[in-house]
Amino acid sequence: MKTIIDELEKEIKTIAIKNIHTDGFYLITVTAAFIKSYEFMKLSANTNEESKTYFTLGSLRGICEDFIVLNFLKKLEKEDRDATIGAFMSLKFQEALKRQHSFFDKERKFQPIIKITPENQNLIEKHKQDLKDIGQRTGAWRKNEPMPKILHMAESLGLKSFYEYFYTLSSETVHFNPRILLRMGWSEKNDMENFSSYYREYGRVYSTLLFLKFFSEFKTILQLNEKIFEMTAKLDQKLNEILRWPEPVTFEELNKEAPNNFTRIMYKIAAELYQS
């Protein structure tokens, strides 16, 4: 997989240059999200520091949410897609200014920062209303909310179980979870590398899966070339050849013997025969 991923970089760069005036907010955002997904996949494939991989895995949730939101907005007309991205970006900018002001006002009053204007709250309300208006006009979401929750978007796309799985995977690395904290130290070794190879594989497998999802959903709008099609087909094959994708709850942490590779191969063959 690593060789294919590294070779993809040259092709990915061919789509990186965009123009806000001709391409619009939505296409530029899709392009940025696709490249972000690729870069994380490349990082996961090339890292040699297994013990540090754990600290990067929260990014999987962000990439998953990028995929779902942009997929959800794809059904809108170009003008509405661009307007939604523009209003949402402006809303998040004003909200970040407000929170930045509150933090530095309490923690570091002396530090120069970008100040909020007296219009900050009015602008927040304006951008929220702009989003509500788009939802009402298009019928894409309820008029009383600026944007649907990610889960609701996923449900409408038939991706609820996919999102919930990635939510579980990533939340265990970014939210408080005593099981994960203790699991990192369940070892006879006096170090912090317990489960490190598991987390490396976890990043490698699921970053690749998300990249392939992005490719499948946005290959047309991104106008990807034939070379990328060929390479992603090989990448998909390599991913499916992996006998074990890391699970959030493992046999090992429960002190149970995991199925050996022969058993896994038999299960895989049986599933393929059933599907055919």
Structure description:
It is a single chain. The protein is an all-alpha fold and 276 residues long. The chain folds into 2 domains: 177 residues, no CATH class; 33 residues, no CATH class. Helix 1 packs antiparallel against helix 2, helix 2 packs antiparallel against helix 4 and helix 4 packs antiparallel against helix 8. The longest helix is centred in the middle third of the chain and has 30 residues.
Which value, in Å, is the CA radius of gyration?
22 Å
- How many discrete structural domains? 2
Mean pLDDT: 91
- Identify the overall geometry: globular
Low-confidence stretches: none
Structural class: mainly alpha
Number of strands: 0
| H-E string | HHHHHHHHHHHH
Number of helices: 12
Percent in strands: under 5%
Summarize the main sheet: none
CA-CA gap between termini:
26 Å
- What is the helix fraction of residues, given as a range? 55-70%
At a glance:
This protein is mainly α and 276 residues long. The protein is built from twelve helices and no strands.
